[in-house]
From TrEMBL:
Its EC number is 2.6.1.42. SUPFAM superfamilies: D-aminoacid aminotransferase-like PLP-dependent enzymes. Pfam families: Aminotran_4. The gene is ilvE. This is Branched-chain-amino-acid aminotransferase.
Length: 316
């Protein structure tokens, strides 16, 4: 992460970047005991406003992760939202922003993971983040030799920092081999997701994506795209297992996530996907996604939280 932020929201207040520290003896440091969210805010020039995209759903997922980890979050959703808004307002950003609320276990007895036995803290990082150039050129992907965490050991449904050891192994391997984001299979040998995004492909006009039981994170972008495909584009969507060999014969493929957005895949393991350029359904979906995120579709305004309007209300 490139540090372009001056402040961090930490345990209820905005502090200078350099003052946002956690002790080396914390469980977050020693055992990766933290959960987090990654969400974006998009600038709308038309509305002169920055919109958090699907912020409520991100908070719901943070609570879902906390529940499985038996963590209790010592702030309400309203307090975390106010923290996100205040952090952005202090920076005055009017461009695409990435937000990362994190809940972590602090110092306590080793393995004292019961909420009452260990200090639990919250911080929020924010930084400006523009889209990757591969959004338009597409990604050359591969199938990782690393398998996705199985639910019976380290559930991918939980957005925990520790899961990203598995993700990092796969991403680094792919990068060293000259590929972009890899596809990960689960232990059953079916397509799961990528280290930081979900997977969709097009076969004969139908979009196919692995089900939430395929060891994936329950992606908010995946759910957004399924809604847009079905309700706005009239494209059928199937949630079912995907075999490895289907990757090599599909017509289009993409990765989706709050950070990754809608990334076309142009080849997998050197097999060209379609014409080897972003496919037509993918390109139309990507365009619609950004329009919705920037508040251009009235029907989906309830997915947006206006940052500067909320900040102005607090100041009054
Ligand atoms: C492992 C993994 N899968 C999927 C996703 C996509 O999830 P979302 O669309 O909610 O950002 C992410 C990104 O957060 C991720 O890290």
């Amino acid at each position: 992460m490139v540090q372009d932020a001056d402040f961090v929201w930490m345990d209820g207040e905005v502090v200078p970047w350099a003052a946002a520290t956690i002790h080396v003896a914390s469980e977050a440091m020693l055992r990766g005991a933290s959960i987090f969210e990654g969400e974006r805010a998009y600038w709308s020039a038309e509305h002169d406003e920055l919109y958090l995209f699907r912020h409520e759903e991100h908070l719901q997922r943070l609570r879902q992760s906390a529940r499985v980890m038996r963590m209790s979050i010592p702030f309400t959703d309203a307090e975390i939202t106010a923290g996100c808004v205040e952090l952005i307002r202090r920076h005055g950003w009017r461009d695409s922003v990435h937000l990362r609320p994190v809940v972590y276990f602090g110092e306590g007895d080793a393995h004292a993971f019961r909420p009452q036995d260990i200090r639990t803290g919250v911080f929020i990082l924010a930084f400006q983040r523009s889209s990757k150039p591969s959004l338009f050129s597409g990604i050359r992907s591969c199938v990782s030799t690393w398998r996705r965490n199985p639910d019976v050991a380290a559930p991918s449904r939980v957005k925990s920092a520790a899961n990203y050891h598995n993700a990092r192994l796969a991403q680094v391997e792919a990068s060293l081999n000259g590929f972009g984001t890899p596809v990960m299979l689960n232990l059953a040998g079916k397509v799961s997701e990528s280290p930081g995004s979900c997977f969709m492909m097009v076969r004969k006009g139908t979009v196919v994506t692995p089900p939430v039981t395929a060891d994936i994170l329950e992606s908010i972008t995946r759910e957004t795209l399924i809604t847009l495909l079905r309700d706005e584009m009239g494209v059928p969507v199937l949630e079912r297992d995907i075999d490895r060999s289907e990757l090599y014969v599909c017509d289009e493929a993409l990765f989706c996530g709050s950070g990754q957005e809608v990334q076309p895949i142009v080849s997998i393991d050197h097999y060209e996907i379609g014409a080897g350029t972003p496919g037509p359904i993918t390109a139309a979906l990507q365009k619609l996604y950004f329009e919705v995120a920037r508040g251009l579709h009235e029907r989906y305004r309830h997915w947006l939280t206006p940052v500067y309007r909320q900040a102005a209300m607090v100041e009054q």
